[in-house]
Amino acid sequence: MGAEGRRVGKYYAGLDDFELIFPDFETDFTFYVPDKGIIRNGSFNNAILDDSQTLGKYGFDRNAYYKYIGGDYPFVKIENHMQKNKKRLW
Q1: What's the CA angle centered on 74, arms 69 and 47, to 5 degrees?
Q2: pTM to 2 decimals?
Q3: d(CA 71, CA 50)
Q4: Would you say 23 and 11 are in contact if contact means Cβ atoms under 8 Å apart?
Q5: Average pLDDT estimate for 42-51
Q6: I need a surface site. Which of 44, 74, 83, 90 has the fewest CB within 10 A?
Q7: Neighbour count for residue 43 (Cβ, 10 Å)
């Protein structure tokens, strides 16, 4: 049911399972949201994951889908300092 369905999902179908997927090798990123002044540096866990989005007991206090990067932002810049080639997704 996703983030919006959690309002009623707990009572009808239970909370969604949420799997956290992250690299199992060394990483080094800079995460930047210009209009919010957010800058995080370091490993994938430190730069990309947002620990403030950890769910509480009932799952209603936070949005588990925001665990990655912390929210819905209009623009995010993520720089991979360990990139071996200069290919881009855009």
Answers
A1: 20
A2: 0.69
A3: 9
A4: no
A5: 91
A6: 90
A7: 14
